[in-house]
Design a protein that fits this description.
Elements (H helix, E strand, L loop, with lengths): L1 E2 L7 H5 L11 H12 L2 H8 L4 H5 L6 H13 L3 E4 L2 E4 L1 H6 L3 H27 L1 H7 L1 H5 L10 H28 L7 E5 L5 H9 L4 E6 L1 H11 L8 E5 L11 E7 L7 H14 E12 L14 H4 L8 H10 L3 E9 L3 E8 L2
Parallel strand pairs: 1-9, 4-5, 4-7, 5-6, 7-8
Antiparallel strand pairs: 2-3, 8-10, 9-10
């Protein structure tokens, strides 16, 4: 079943973040917006609008010719509007600024891996193993750096966690709308990253406590991420390799959010069996993942480059359904949800 945002009563609150992508469609639209953020143009226009170009020159590190070109590019991207001789941020872009963290994370993520397309696209198509060895994308997500503490390793881990946390902050709200967590008491988030998903769950449901299992440096950064939140006392982190360790038991809901696609099918089978042992009888297993990507004849936007480069990793949900049945789960259901790319949410009950 495909869930359309048009038919969801809370669509505006949980799906509105998708509006950021309309401003990140092409290389030049992204570069002009990145520049406008970094030189302070966006913030100055928020304070002064409507304003003339000379008002902007006085507050940013650019000359008038540069500002005029930038305003022209931003206008073509519907970020700014011109009214007579004055400029202001468009209403639609001001709405998108509610998700500024996501806008800027997507800009930086796409720019970081864009050279992978420019330089290694042939390998992406013809030799995926060579592509994985050469691409910035897979160097960024080098989980070996998450095992041993050092300044360099913390810096590298924080870099990719910024991107995953920004995505999870908004994707989690969609999952919470589609699945009722109110009956649960202990949420085990395997591969839970910064704890952002657990934080969203605890924020909506004050009686739930959450445990995040992830690699050591990820847990350190995650504990720091949630430390200032009122819900932090209900969120704990356990360091370890979830594929090798025994998972904590006595949980009534266990989640894999954007985790299982990273692993070959044999490893996914192990994860699901471990989940079955960790869950209480009658407990729920949730899998929230991107599905296979098919552009369908539409050129992908610049912002989707990082996601598109993982296209070989996103599985059809039927693979997970078969593994769940094999592991003895019942009442297995799947919902298909269209976000920036196709997602699915699988729920299954432990016998």
């Amino acid at each position: 079943m495909l869930i359309s945002t048009e038919h969801c009563p809370d669509a505006e609150s949980v799906y509105d973040y998708l509006c950021v992508d309309r401003f990140l469609s092409t290389f030049m639209s992204v570069q002009s917006l990145k520049c406008a953020f970094e030189i302070g143009l966006i913030d100055r226009m928020l304070r002064l609008q409507p304003c003339v170009p000379r008002d902007l020159v006085a507050g940013v590190a650019a000359d008038l010719d540069g500002i005029l070109l930038l305003l022209d590019l931003l206008g073509a991207n519907r970020v700014v509007e011109q009214r007579c001789e004055r400029f202001c941020l468009s209403v639609s872009f001001q709405r998108a600024l509610r998700f500024r963290d996501l806008l800027q994370a997507k800009i930086d993520f796409a720019n970081l891996v864009a050279p992978d397309v420019a330089i290694h696209f042939n390998s992406l198509i013809t030799d995926p193993h060579q592509f994985m060895r050469r691409a910035n994308l897979f160097d960024l997500f080098n989980y070996k750096r998450c095992l041993t503490p050092s300044g360099e390793h913390y810096h590298a881990t924080r870099r990719w966690m910024r991107f995953t946390t920004a995505l999870t902050r908004y994707e989690a709200k969609v999952c919470l709308q589609r699945h009722d967590f109110s009956r649960y008491r202990h949420f085990l988030d395997v591969g839970g990253n910064s704890g952002e998903f657990a934080l969203q769950v605890c924020r909506q449901h004050p009686r739930i406590r959450a445990t995040v299992v992830d690699l050591p440096l990820v847990c350190d950064i995650g504990a720091e991420h949630v430390s200032t939140e009122p819900e932090s006392s209900r969120i704990s982190f356990i360091k370890g390799d979830a594929l090798k360790m025994k998972l904590p038991s006595s949980c009534d809901v266990l989640g894999f959010k954007s985790v299982l696609h990273d692993w070959p099918e044999d490893a996914v089978r192990v994860f699901i069996r471990k989940a079955g042992r960790a869950l209480d009888s009658g407990g729920t297993l949730l899998i929230f993942e991107r599905g296979p990507i098919s552009p369908g004849g539409i050129e992908p936007s610049y912002a989707t480059i990082p996601i598109l480069l993982f296209f070989r990793f996103y599985r059809d949900p039927s693979i997970y359904l078969n593994l769940l049945a094999e592991a003895g789960f019942h009442d297995v259901g799947v919902e298909h949800i269209q976000l920036d790319t196709p997602f699915f949410l699988i729920s299954a009950t432990k016998t």
